[in-house]
């Protein structure tokens, strides 16, 4: 029986992959007892809102892809829309609080505060680099959903 990341990878259309990533991220929050709110319309810069300790956080869901360097995944921190005049790219500053990132390559979900991301993309490393470089490295354990949620809430069981 194929696992979740295999099933995810078998989806060919980007739209279906986006829907699957959103469903996976929502289930990650709900399974931890975190309420998830979804905008009625699809024109907000965030995909969901989560409530943690009576605070609401706007979350943009992203799918990470394997980075060009081994042992890392990468996700885009900009929105790209197709217009009749070409592509329109826009950042999420002041529009979201977190990126929730599903990485099918390692079947992990990350929660990344927007202030810790780059302007266009972010790389998260889950295996040390071959050259041993650790400076300015975003380690996966720093962004795993449980660790970030525990820093947001007073209930240590979440």
TrEMBL record:
InterPro entries: PD(D/E)XK_Endonuc, tRNA_endonuc-like_dom_sf. Transmembrane segments: none annotated. GO terms for molecular function: nucleic acid binding. Residues 14-144 form the PD(D/E)XK endonuclease domain. It holds the Pfam family PDDEXK_5. This is PD(D/E)XK endonuclease domain-containing protein.
């Amino acid at each position: 029986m194929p696992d979740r990341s295999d099933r995810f990878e078998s989806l060919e259309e980007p739209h279906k992959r986006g829907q699957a990533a959103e469903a996976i991220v929502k289930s990650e929050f709900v399974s931890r007892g975190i309420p998830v709110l979804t905008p009625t319309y699809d024109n907000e810069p965030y995909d969901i809102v989560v409530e943690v300790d009576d605070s609401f956080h706007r979350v943009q869901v992203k799918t990470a892809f394997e980075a060009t360097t081994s042992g890392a995944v990468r996700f885009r921190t900009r929105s790209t829309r197709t217009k009749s005049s070409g592509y329109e790219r826009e950042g999420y500053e002041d529009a979201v609080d977190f990126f929730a990132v599903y990485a099918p390559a390692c079947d992990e979900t990350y929660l990344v505060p927007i202030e810790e991301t780059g302007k266009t993309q972010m790389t998260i490393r889950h295996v040390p680099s071959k050259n041993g470089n650790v400076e300015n490295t975003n380690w996966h354990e720093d962004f795993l959903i449980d660790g970030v949620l525990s820093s947001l809430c007073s209930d240590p069981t979440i």
